[in-house]
From TrEMBL:
Residues 41-66 are annotated as: Disordered. The active site is at D171 (proton donor/acceptor). Substrate binds at R114. The record marks H203, R264 as: Transition state stabilizer. SUPFAM superfamilies: Actin-like ATPase domain. This is Acetate kinase. The keyword Metal-binding applies. Pathway: Metabolic intermediate biosynthesis; acetyl-CoA biosynthesis; acetyl-CoA from acetate: step 1/2. The gene is ackA. ATP binds at K33, H231, L232, G233, N234, G235, D305, F306, R307, G353, V354, G355, E356, N357. One of its GO terms (molecular function) is kinase activity.
């Protein structure tokens, strides 16, 4: 309601309006997620708690972003859905207009687009030009499922508001600081370079947001802390962050590498692929589908939702228990590996659907790691809450945190800071 009044007032007044709104678009192959944020007002969800406000609020002055509207248009190009991305974005525009938040508002400063793969070319939020769109299209072979949809979303949004700045925020960008020792595979250099084969990492906006929020929770500047972020959703990745900069992450050329995920295998011996092709007679496309869509928790036990896996484990289901154990074993290996990569760990932060909601996963992942200075508090860990919080024991040398991720806010910050600069 307030927004409606403001918009009308803005239209009537001759004084210039401060454009402080950001539309964040996440265009997938069959869906468009959107969120409209106002960057001028502090967000009730991102405001630091009084205990951490002293340093958190003053040092991170961009800690704003009130969500004005959000939604999703699904089943694009499918039966019962809209025809294409142009129709989907038209629907987004209509939904926003019906709330008095139309795309024609002078308060809209910029559109921020999530783009999955930025290759080595894009290492931060980038103002979109024709040349940038062409570069993102060149990266399609590295992200054949995601980048084409991202590009379509960008093109349609640019057609809708050609006058408005649009910014691409890349999932890979946060990982651009990885040293070559972590980013390169140990394969023939010339072949790797010819085909862009290296470790790029993903979930970068989430790792950036959560590592910064974790520092704020500790009352520290990001440059003062080393953090291991465990982004555990249906896709999952770990990230080692030294003084605010990514130094290693578990996803690689594609999101297939690393942790056991909902439907992805994560790390396997690459020779498994040759074996399945030569001995199993499986075509490469089928192996691709196997490792990306029919592996991980789903492949191991038939379920990829931890709520269901937990229920089955409680009934003594051995298959579900083994899937859980394999998932946890891999996760613990990465915690140990990143403790070694960082040398000193100040905090471990859990985020995304599983990380935020499964005390059992958090507890199992860190059980018995007291010799590494990691001690989780059973009572704090079991509490359900929606805010960023510590779940470590008071004496724990390494803080253990649960931090709800907010990729939309991170994209909005990136896009807004670029056009405001
Ligand atoms: P995301 O990809 O971040 O949306 O995470 C989705 C996953 O989070 C689901 O597949 C579930 O495994 C997990 N999840 C969501 N809610 C819960 C919950 N209450 N308890 C345990 N796991 C959950």
């Amino acid at each position: 309601m307030n927004a409606q009044i403001n918009v009308n007032a803005a239209k009537e007044t001759p004084t210039p309006v401060t454009a402080s709104r950001v539309l964040v678009l996440n265009s997938g192959s069959s869906s468009v997620k959107y969120q409209l944020l106002d960057m001028a007002h502090p967000s009730p969800t991102s405001r630091p708690s009084p205990a951490t406000a002293i340093k958190g609020a003053t040092r991170h002055g961009d800690n704003s972003g009130t969500r004005l509207a959000s939604g999703i248009v699904e089943r694009i190009g499918e039966e019962g859905g809209v025809a294409d991305h142009a129709a989907a974005l038209k629907q987004v525009a209509d939904e926003l207009a019906s709330q008095g938040l139309g795309l024609d508002s002078p308060q809209l400063a910029v559109v921020g687009h999530r783009v999955v793969h930025g290759g080595t070319r894009f290492t931060g939020p980038t103002l979109i030009t024709d040349e940038v769109v062409a570069e993102i299209e060149k990266l399609v072979p590295l992200a054949p499922l995601h980048n084409p949809a991202n590009v379509t979303g960008i093109k349609v949004a640019r057609d809708l508001r050609p006058d408005l700045p649009q910014v691409a925020v890349f999932d890979t960008a946060f990982h651009a600081t990885m040293p070559e020792a972590a980013a390169r595979y140990a394969i023939d250099r010339a072949t790797a370079d010819r085909h862009g084969v290296r470790r790029y990492g993903f979930h970068g906006t989430s790792h950036a947001y959560v590592s910064r929020a974790t520092a704020a929770l500790l009352g520290k500047d990001p440059s003062e802390v080393n953090v291991i972020v465990l982004h555990l959703g249906n896709g999952a990745s770990a990230c080692a962050i030294e003084a605010g900069r990514c130094v290693d992450t578990s996803m690689g050329l594609t999101p297939l590498e690393g942790l056991v995920m909902g439907t992805r295998s994560g790390d396997i011996d690459p020779a498994v692929i040759f074996h399945l092709a030569r001995v199993g007679g499986m075509p490469v496309e089928e192996i691709d589908t196997l490792l990306n869509k029919r592996s991980g928790l789903l492949g191991l036990c038939g379920d990829n939702d931890f709520r269901e896996i937990g229920r089955r484990m409680a009934e003594g289901d051995a298959e579900a228990q083994l899937a859980f154990d394999i998932y946890i074993h891999r996760l613990r290996k990465y915690v140990g590996a990143y403790a070694a990569v960082l040398g000193r760990v100040d905090a471990i932060a859990f985020t995304a659907g599983v990380g935020e909601n499964s005390p059992a996963v958090r507890e199992a992942a860190l059980r018995g790691l007291e010799p590494l200075g990691i001690e989780i508090d059973a009572v704090r860990n079991a509490l359900r809450a929606g805010n960023a919080r510590l779940v470590s024991a008071d004496g724990s040398r390494v803080a253990v945190a649960v931090v709800p991720t907010n990729e939309e806010l991170e994209i909005a910050r990136g896009a807004y800071s670029l056009v405001r600069a």
